[in-house]
Write a structure and sequence with these properties.
The strands form 2 sheets. The chain has a 6-stranded mixed sheet with strand order 2-1-3-8-4-7, with helices on both faces. Helix 1 (about 30-40) links the parallel strand 1 and strand 2 (about 50-55). With about 240 residues, it is α/β, with parallel strands linked by helices. The two termini are about 30 Å apart. It is globular. Helix content is about 30%, strand content about 20%. It has helices spanning about 30-40, 60-75, 130-140, 155-165, 195-215; strands at about 15-20, 50-55, 80-85, 90-95, 95-100, 125, 145-150, 175-180.
């Protein structure tokens, strides 16, 4: 059972956004607050078939089951996953998921992953989000952007891998990827690259709308996404 079949480029997509709860070393996770804001701001409409934002526990043993439950219930077309990386200097767009727990560390429950591989499949998988379009629109809005080919060895990479590999029952998004964000300025005012909640929410909205535009410009049955010219007006998310 997978995401609803794309029968027309005009069909509005079903969008899933995820963030994480707190974890060791991060008593405040900005992506947890982000989920609450996005659930209030986005809803079903002309451009969005359905919207859902969820907070995931930072636990290896439960993450696949949680994603499967969400997938079966919601069947997203687009899955945008957010996570905290303390070293970020803006929105860090992750290009590659690595199907490995090689650099894992204990989760919120103190548990290490039992297997060395995240799931069955290739060693690496590419993001299927329209990253160039996202970067262009974030930069046009004056928000900092970074690029990365390594999502780390923690739950962020695990979720990224499970989502793009379609390794969880029901979670088979046409477009999926992961974006890291820095600490929250309101919680850590002394951290140089921390980001205010307003900028975080604005950037997330730009990212969501870029994905919607990319989806709506797909050809019926097209697996890839065409290049789309950045349009500052379409970064509006209210």
């Amino acid at each position: 059972m997978g995401a609803p079949a794309s029968t027309s480029p005009a069909r509005p997509p079903r969008i899933l956004v995820t963030g994480f709860s707190v974890f060791p070393g991060a008593p405040v996770n900005p992506t947890e607050a982000l989920v609450g804001i996005l659930n209030d701001e986005f809803a079903e409409g002309e451009r969005i078939g359905a919207f859902r934002a969820e907070v995931l526990a930072v636990e290896y043993e439960t993450i696949a089951g949680r994603l499967s439950a969400i997938g079966r219930d919601f069947l997203p077309d687009i899955a945008i996953h957010f996570g905290l990386a303390r070293e970020c200097r803006g929105f860090r767009l992750e290009r590659v998921a690595r199907n490995s727990h090689a650099n894992a560390r204990p989760d919120q429950a103190g548990v290490m992953p039992a297997a060395t591989q995240v799931c069955a499949g290739p060693e690496t998988l590419d993001s299927t989000l329209p990253l160039d379009l996202i970067a262009s629109r974030l930069e046009a809005a004056g928000l900092p952007v970074q690029w990365s080919d390594d999502a780390g060895g923690y739950l962020c990479n695990t979720v990224f891998t499970l989502s793009v590999a379609h390794a969880c029952d029901g979670l088979r998004p046409v477009m999926a990827g992961f974006i890291h964000v820095p600490p929250l300025r309101e919680a850590e005012p002394g951290t140089p690259d921390a980001m205010g909640i307003d900028d975080l929410a604005s950037g997330a909205g730009i990212i969501i709308n870029a994905c919607v535009d990319a989806w709506m410009n797909r050809e019926p049955g097209q697996a890839g996404l065409p290049g789309i010219e950045a349009d500052p007006d379409s970064s509006r998310w209210r």
